[in-house]
Write a structure and sequence with these properties.
Layout lengths: L1 E4 L6 H4 L2 H7 L3 H6 L1 H24 L14 E2 L9 E2 L5 E4 L2 E6 L6 E5 L6 E9 L6 E9 L6 E8 L7 E4 L4 E4 L3 H7 L6 E8 L2 E6 L2 E7 L10 E6 L5 E12 L7 E7 L9 E9 L8 E8 L10 E5 L8 E5 H4 L7 E5 L8 E5 L9 E4 L9 E5 L7 E7 L8 E6 L5 E5 L12 E5 L5 E7 L8 E6 L6 E6 L11 E6 L5 E5 L8 E5 L8 E7 L2 E6 L9 E10 L8 E8 L4 E12 L2 E13 L14 E4 L8 E5 L6 E6 L4
Antiparallel strand pairs: 1-17, 2-16, 3-6, 4-5, 5-16, 6-15, 7-12, 7-16, 8-9, 8-15, 9-10, 10-11, 12-13, 13-14, 17-44, 18-19, 19-20, 20-21, 22-23, 23-24, 24-25, 26-27, 27-28, 28-29, 30-31, 31-32, 32-33, 34-35, 35-36, 36-37, 38-39, 39-40, 40-41, 42-43, 43-44
């Protein structure tokens, strides 16, 4: 199995210095030990190059910005307290320093920013004169009404408390504290100290003079992640604290890092060869490791084509291919395009429920998982589908009876069926079904969301340009019977192949996000619900020449672990035949919705020709290597590989 390290494809300017590149590769502790050598060597080379280039090209003589200071902005201008609010009698400015001086006060006092911040890196220099008194810097904080207090996280700076993370005026306790010997070794008690506060999602890191003091993860999801920055003067006796060079960089600063592992590379040659179509993650053989199951289909029945089949690949290395379904075993019509895994017969092992596709779309069987995986999977009854071009199959408890139902969709007619999965002997007969929708024309995927907030899951589909484009949702009836209809609602004229409904801007209504076929001028972005209808916001795709083709499918999943769903989509760059996987980081900053583009992975596509067409195939996600984070399995669908993305983000 080939492995590709994708961290070199990250945007260095956005994600930081060469030192951070080391952190992204999972060698954080090793890099921290030699950080000073790396920092000064790398920065010296980069600064020399940058200054030389600037002088030659523009004649400028200004010094270059150090790499690890790129994108930082000053919070304190060195002249006055513009941008801050507080007691001017206690807070003054002198010689580029922001000074808090107390003659002895009976209550706390704070100088706070006027602006709020969410995710950021805050850096400043601090000095506590004569090591007397108590101070700190609060963040993600707010002023307490009718009080001198400010509540929020506090980075402490006081004798016996240096480097502590304290919860001020809220839980009123120390959340994390460094070891005393670490503080004693690295703290400068008589001069300036460099302090850094890094707040990213639920994670908070405090460092003094380049040494990590605490690394804390907030478990309480009700704690706000956005607020003011506040400088503190503690109540009690006389004291003086000095700050200077206060600067901040907003946004995430540690990009998730992934490595691509190819299980089966693309097959070179004719379009008739098989390509992976769908993936599923499940422990097939019961050994405690996640296995990967994939279907492989042939687009064209040309001479010499490789027959379609379904196989599973045992974890944790996913080496070896074990056939579940193939044409030779079950006949010429055995063509499983999509599938789900579900324990149909109730024996404790997940069976495979297959969905056919043209020209064998009416062949829809389920296959019983054997006790012994050296034995073949047994083909069971054709449960019946009544669709000509099955394209999507999902498991949902759509009728709320506590048991999963099977939903199937026809890509050409737009028909959607729901089948109740029977038990016992009834599973060997034709499964009863209920028609939900039909007649909307070319479509591809379903998604589910309670659009009208009635407590019932509705169905969202997207139609391509052929036959009239648009996003449509079907309203779940209060009952599920043959006479109850799913009311059709047209949402917006968007050329999508897959769409998701979410309240993206947190304003109480429902927005939509998704992708179309990039090569057929499909849309790619989100639709905001406004008072006058829907407003389309196109994603900022870093490709101005339409060299990236693909799209087709996308997934909403929390890539960076911040609790918000991000969007993943794939494509092929026609210029060099590389498959490029992008993820769009979802952020909501001061009422604005942002989708920030990142590279998830890049790999070459051996034997691929752009004329073959490429579609972003199916993905499945879970902890594939049992290391506690989320990985992704991928099936290339229209000419791509079968493989998985290993999450190597430092924890």
């Amino acid at each position: 199995m080939d492995s590709f390290d994708i961290s070199k494809f990250l945007n260095f300017k956005k994600w930081g210095s060469l030192l951070k590149l080391g952190l992204l590769k999972g060698r954080g502790e090793e890099y921290m030990k030699i950080s000073h050598v790396i920092r000064f060597s790398a920065l010296a080379c980069i600064a020399i190059y940058t200054v030389t280039w600037a002088a030659e090209s523009t004649g400028a003589t200004e010094p270059a910005v150090p790499v690890d200071e790129v994108d930082f902005v000053q919070l304190f201008n060195g002249k006055d307290i513009t941008g801050w609010t507080g007691n001017a009698k206690l807070w003054t400015v002198r010689d580029g320093m922001l000074i808090g001086r107390s003659p002895g006060i009976k209550h706390y006092d704070f100088l706070t920013t006027k602006q709020t911040f969410e995710d950021f890196v805050l850096r400043f220099q601090i000095q506590l004169v004569d090591s007397r008194g108590n101070t700190g810097v609060l963040f993600r904080s707010k002023r307490v009404k009718n009080s001198h207090e400010v509540s929020g996280y506090q980075a402490d700076f006081a004798p016996g408390r240096h480097g502590n993370l304290f919860d001020e005026a809220r839980r009123r306790k120390i959340l994390a504290a460094p070891k005393a010997e670490v503080v004693a070794k690295h703290l400068n008690r008589t001069d300036w100290n460099d302090y850094e506060i890094r707040a990213e999602g639920s994670r908070i890191i405090l460092s003094i003079n380049g040494v990590k003091m605490v690394d804390y993860v907030e478990a309480d999801k009700t704690i706000p992640r956005c607020g003011l920055v506040a400088l503190q003067i503690h109540k009690g006796g006389p004291m003086e604290v000095r700050f200077r060079n206060i600067r901040i960089k907003e946004g995430r600063t540690a990009c998730p890092s992934f490595a691509i592992h190819v299980i089966k590379p693309p097959r070179p040659g004719t379009e008739g060869n098989t390509v992976p179509s769908m993936v599923w993650l499940h422990d097939v053989n019961g050994d405690g490791h996640v296995d990967l199951i994939a279907s492989h289909i042939a687009w064209m029945n040309k001479p010499g084509f490789v027959h379609p089949y379904v196989a599973w690949y045992p974890g944790p290395d996913f080496q070896g291919e074990h056939i579940i379904v193939d044409k030779e075993s079950f006949g010429v019509n055995s063509r499983v395009y999509r599938f789900v895994m579900f324990d149909v017969d109730g024996d404790g092992r997940n069976d495979l429920i297959g969905q056919g596709y043209q020209p064998h779309s009416n062949f829809n069987h389920w296959y019983r998982c054997p006790d012994d995986q050296t034995q073949p999977w047994r083909e069971c009854y054709d449960y019946g589908c009544d669709l000509k071009n099955g394209h999507d199959i999902r498991l949902r408890d759509i009728d709320g009876d506590g048991r999963m139902d099977l939903l199937l969709m026809d890509s050409w007619s737009g028909k959607i069926l729901v089948k109740r999965i029977p038990t016992g002997e009834a599973a060997q007969k034709r499964w009863p079904y209920h028609m939900i929708a039909g007649g909307d024309g070319l479509t591809h995927y379903m998604s589910f969301y309670d659009v009208n907030r009635d407590g019932l899951e509705d169905i969202v589909i997207a139609k391509e340009e052929d036959g009239g484009k648009g996003i449509i949702w079907y309203e779940h009836p209060l009952r599920m019977s043959q006479t109850d209809t799913w009311q059709r609602h047209f949402v917006v004229d968007a050329n999508f192949t897959k769409a998701f409904a979410r309240d993206l801007d947190d304003d109480g209504d429902v927005d939509f996000v998704g992708t179309g076929e990039w090569y057929s001028r499909g849309d790619f972005g989100w639709c905001e619900r406004t008072d006058s209808g829907y407003r389309f916001h196109e994603f900022d795709v870093q490709d101005n020449n339409n060299d990236i083709i693909g799209g087709h499918n996308c997934e909403l999943v929390d890539v960076d672990g911040d609790g918000d769903e991000d969007l993943i989509v794939g494509g092929v760059d026609k210029r060099d035949n590389t498959q490029r996987f992008r993820w769009y980081e979802f952020r909501r900053v001061r009422g604005r919705v942002l989708w920030i583009e990142h590279v998830l992975g890049v790999t070459s596509v051996s034997g691929f020709k752009p004329s073959h067409g490429f579609y972003c195939g199916e993905m499945a996600y879970g902890d594939m290597d049992s290391d506690g984070d989320q990985d992704f399995a991928y099936a290339g669908h229209g000419g791509g590989f079968l493989g998985w993305f290993e999450n190597r983000t430092p924890r």
